[in-house]
Amino acid sequence: MKRFLPLLLILPLLIWIACEEAEETDTIPPTVIITSPQDGSIVSDSVEITCMSTDDKGVEMVELWVNGVSTGVADSTEPYLLKWITSDIEHGNYTIIVRAYDLNGNAADSNPIILTVSNLSDYNLFTATFDGEFDNTVTSFIFISDDNGNILADSGFIGDASFDLIADKSSNPPPDKINVTILTQKDGYIDIQTNLGINKGSNWTWYNPYYEPEVIGESYYTFSNIPAEFYRVVLSSKGLRTRTSINESDTYSLSHYNNNEDVVIMGIMNDGTALYKFIENVSVSDTHSVDFSNFTQATQKIINNLTGEDCSSIGINGLFLDDSFVNYNRYALNRGWNEGIDWNDENNFVVNYPPEFTKFRTKSYNGAPYSGTIGEKTWVQTITGDIPESIEKINADINVLSSDIDDFEMDLSGSYDQWTISAIDSLTNNRWYIFVNPSITSGRFPMLPQSVIDIYPDVNRNSFEIVSVGMSDFLCAENQEEWHELYFNTDGYYGDFCSGRRDVNYWLE
Prior knowledge:
By secondary structure, this protein is mostly beta strands. It is built from five helices and 38 strands. The strands form eight sheets. The protein has a twelve-stranded mixed β-sheet with strand order 12-11-14-15-35-34-37-38-30-29-26-27. A hairpin with a 2-residue loop joins β14 (177-186) and β15.
């Protein structure tokens, strides 16, 4: 019997050990439930996903999975919180689960939920700032539309304002290219300006380089010893002028924005030459007796016409070194449209100027004899700085295939930075200007939002008719986007930061 005693003692011990091992083998997975956000939620930027997880032996951690792929985002401490960063992922629906792990390596997944990522950057249409640009006594509007003219966002404002325009985040994201329209009341009519094909998310500031000068009075002039070959006189203060024929018996007036300013008098001759005189420190109400025998011969320059088109007119203004090119600082030297005076028989422009001026604004017209000639094209070149050696065409041309505002189509050729459409409501004189990205050759005008119609019920979109189409090449920019970068980020007159532009305008029949 003794020899069986150890066996009897060992057998219960083995049974006890086996039972212990059986009890420690854990095959039961944890449970896990997502508590927020709710299934079907729209989320953006940084999203906090919370869950509850339990296990009889203990939860080691929970982990976030998106569309069947682990994000590596985990939490091992209650309350469980998983932060999902969506800022850099595309808009759309994503399947979310949380996987829980217990202390013995068992894992279980929560029921899936669907979250829609809809980041602010997807819906941020446009940032607008208005700095002195619009009348602070009238309501103006800015609205954003898509290619079909549908309104994506709109806002009214009075005077200076700054705001972001955001599309409805419950709808699909807007297109990458949008249309930006400004509508305001100006001088008794409605002025509408639309930019088509703008990058979504652009940030523009409208600066107003103009001030509101007031005419403070007039000075007066009589003339003597007028040359027999005299054609006409140009009297000019800063920003104002009188251009007329004269005689020795009448008195002529010149308006002023400023007191005690210099006046330049240009005597234009029939042979295309000119005489000039400066009268210094002129005050309003002064009367000056002007003797042409004391005038000085103006410097003359021939500007070669390389356009292949007939000369139609030219204007030249003189400025001093520190003056802005804004029109309130310009001295008018001539603006004419006469062969033999403003251009010679070789079809080259003739300009005369006092050498005391250090910079100039020269604007020439070729082709149609004046702007608005129906069925004709006018070629325009504007140069600020030195007087140009030659006049050249924009290397581009227009063929209008359709002028319907709901289905316009253009055949555009050559190299240009943007093209434009001008439309008018002939009954009200309301005007609509469209500035178009070169990538667009057809489309439709934007619809008008209800907010505009509520304030301006007389604005009738369907009454507008296209009257002209133009193309522009900015000599200071390589493309439209670069031009916008300059224009909307420079607080000043565009002629001060852009050396010039070339345009062609076609006046529809």
